[in-house]
């Protein structure tokens, strides 16, 4: 292994001139003259954090008390040369660290610098960390994050953020010592799919609100955001071939109690997917069908078997609506929607809902799903649905999202035996819209009260008989919006339970430990306060 010191000796002279030019080009008023010899490490500081003070818990940490790194006005962020992705992640990290530190933190795509640096490197991370993991090394002279992919590198930067004092999240310059604990972290996820869901149908949430949620999710290594885009109360995505879906179905007076109107234009949706992608999050769009369709059916009379449009609905009942299964027009409608949505969706999945189709017989449901699931493939996407979809014995590439509260489900277990993959979202564990306890002012309670420990203390691979580790694509924390209007409402239900589900998705089953999680969670609170996150201060946690 090359020592930190040797690396400095080797690179300092060779790259000084490049660096000088780059620094000049950044036009940042750096209060420095480049030293002729390697920069002295900042005075030894005592880190306030430890390598394992991170959510989700890292796979492996090896502390080195001699290796404390301290951010200083001289620190540069160095990224893999010729890698636009690494440079972009470097810029994001600089944007995160500049307000509180007040340091210039120039981002330099050079092979080496003589300065104290945060090196963000794609390549050379070793196969163990896989496609989404990273290796983070902290010595006195530098922090180095190595990953095989941009996703892994981004994940490493989120860990680094949590290794800095909480004041790093402040919007104004703070007087503190920015120490990062020394040593090595090797980290990679347990599951490929670590999701959250936001319901835009019951109350619409705006693009800035969705972006705020994405910012919060990305800190906990969530990599999928499922958007529930249609339901009985509202239709929230522009479809050009059926234009009144949004102007009427998502228009004034829609949403629960008539106070959740709005929709995403295609440009809005593209902006959200791009914003998410820059934070290594893939959007999963859902159009719920054949039930949960009153907004579409009240907008277009021809989508009803009797040709009569029902009134719009602003209540929270479920299970009464259904597309007309035996009408060819239904499939033209569904194909138009899937085609247009697939066209603007860069991610691999398209969710077709399929839950609570109580106004449809089992035969009708099977007829519908057997026509619709292949349409998703026709437009280049992989079909995904709530677990009821498994009743129709779909092709083995269809993904089931389990939302039940029980520990057995024969259709799901049989689907798993045939090779279908599952995302675990048991409503009595993972639903972020369930009240914490009977006094919670927001949310519902039909599945359970879910305190933080309830959200954390379960194993996705031991939840449903016959649905083990190998069957799981991952976990997801859905947030339904019947009672939620604002981003403050969203945050109150998601925090602190979202980090619990994020840890179930990322960290090893062996590391699962309530007392450890509880302690780490309590330490997140100062960050949330500085980020103005409206969290629920659960009495189960000792909040810093
Ligand atoms: C659901 O909660 N109906 C998926």
Automatic annotation (TrEMBL):
Belongs to the glycosyl hydrolase 20 family. It holds the Pfam family Glyco_hydro_20b. Residues 1-41 form the signal peptide. Residues 191-508 form the Glycoside hydrolase family 20 catalytic domain. Transmembrane segments: none annotated. Keywords: Glycosidase, Hydrolase, Signal. It comes from Micromonospora musae. Residues 41-71 are annotated as: Disordered. It catalyses: Hydrolysis of terminal non-reducing N-acetyl-D-hexosamine residues in N-acetyl-beta-D-hexosaminides. The keyword Hydrolase applies. This is beta-N-acetylhexosaminidase. Residues 53-188 form the Beta-hexosaminidase bacterial type N-terminal domain. Its EC number is 3.2.1.52. InterPro entries: Beta_hexosaminidase_sua/sub (IPR025705), GH (IPR017853), Glyco_hydro_20_cat (IPR015883), Hex-like_dom2 (IPR029018), HEX_bac_N (IPR015882).
């Amino acid at each position: 292994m090359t020592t930190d010191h040797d690396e400095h000796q080797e690179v300092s002279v060779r790259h000084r001139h490049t660096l000088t030019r780059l620094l000049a080009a950044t036009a940042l008023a750096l209060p420095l003259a480049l030293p002729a010899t390697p920069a002295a490490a900042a005075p030894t500081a005592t880190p306030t954090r430890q390598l394992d003070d991170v959510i989700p818990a890292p796979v492996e940490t090896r502390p080195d008390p001699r290796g404390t790194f301290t951010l200083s006005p001289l620190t540069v962020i160095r990224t893999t040369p010729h890698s636009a992705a690494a440079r972009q992640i470097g810029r994001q990290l600089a944007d995160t660290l500049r307000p509180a530190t007040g340091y210039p933190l120039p981002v330099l795509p050079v092979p080496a610098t003589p300065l104290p640096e945060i090196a963000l490197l794609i390549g050379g991370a070793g196969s163990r960390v896989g496609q989404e993991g990273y290796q983070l090394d902290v010595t006195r002279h530098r922090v180095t994050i190595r990953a095989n992919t941009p996703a892994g590198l981004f994940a490493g930067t989120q860990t680094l953020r949590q290794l800095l004092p909480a004041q790093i999240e402040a919007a104004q310059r703070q007087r503190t010592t920015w120490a990062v604990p020394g040593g090595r972290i090797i980290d990679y996820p347990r599951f490929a799919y670590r999701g959250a869901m936001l319901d835009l149908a019951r109350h619409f949430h705006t693009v800035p609100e969705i972006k705020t949620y994405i910012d919060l999710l990305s800190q906990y290594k969530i990599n999928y955001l499922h958007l529930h885009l249609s339901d009985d109360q509202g239709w929230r995505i522009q479809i050009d071939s059926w234009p009144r879906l949004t102007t009427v179905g998502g228009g004034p007076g829609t949403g629960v109690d008539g106070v959740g109107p709005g929709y995403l234009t295609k440009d809005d949706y593209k902006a959200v997917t791009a914003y998410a992608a820059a934070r290594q999050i893939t959007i999963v769009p859902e159009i719920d069908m054949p039930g949960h369709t009153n907004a579409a059916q009240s907008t277009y009379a021809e989508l009803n078997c009797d040709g009569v449009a029902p009134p719009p609905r602003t209540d929270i009942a479920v299970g009464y609506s259904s597309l007309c299964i035996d009408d060819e027009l239904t499939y033209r409608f569904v194909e138009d929607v899937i085609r247009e949505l697939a066209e603007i969706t860069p991610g691999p999945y398209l969710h077709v809902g399929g839950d609570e189709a109580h106004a449809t017989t089992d035969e009708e449901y099977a007829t519908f799903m057997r026509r619709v699931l292949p349409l998703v493939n026709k437009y280049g996407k992989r079909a995904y649905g709530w677990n009821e979809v498994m009743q129709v014995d779909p092709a083995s590439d269809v993904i089931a999202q389990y939302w039940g509260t029980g520990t057995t489900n024969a259709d799901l277990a049989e689907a798993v035996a045939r090779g279908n993959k599952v995302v675990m979202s048991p409503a009595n564990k993972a639903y972020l819209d369930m009240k914490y306890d009977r006094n919670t002012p927001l949310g519902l309670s039909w599945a359970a009260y879910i305190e933080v420990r309830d959200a954390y203390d379960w194993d996705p691979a031991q939840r449903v008989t016959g649905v083990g580790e190998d069957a799981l694509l991952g976990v997801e924390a859905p947030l339904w919006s019947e009672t939620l209007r604002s981003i403050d409402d969203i945050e109150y239900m998601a925090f602190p339970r979202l980090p619990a589900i994020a840890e179930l998705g990322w960290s090893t089953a062996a590391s699962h430990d309530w007392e450890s999680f509880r302690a780490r969670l309590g330490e997140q609170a100062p960050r949330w306060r500085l980020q103005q996150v409206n969290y629920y201060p659960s009495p189960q946690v000792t909040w810093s």
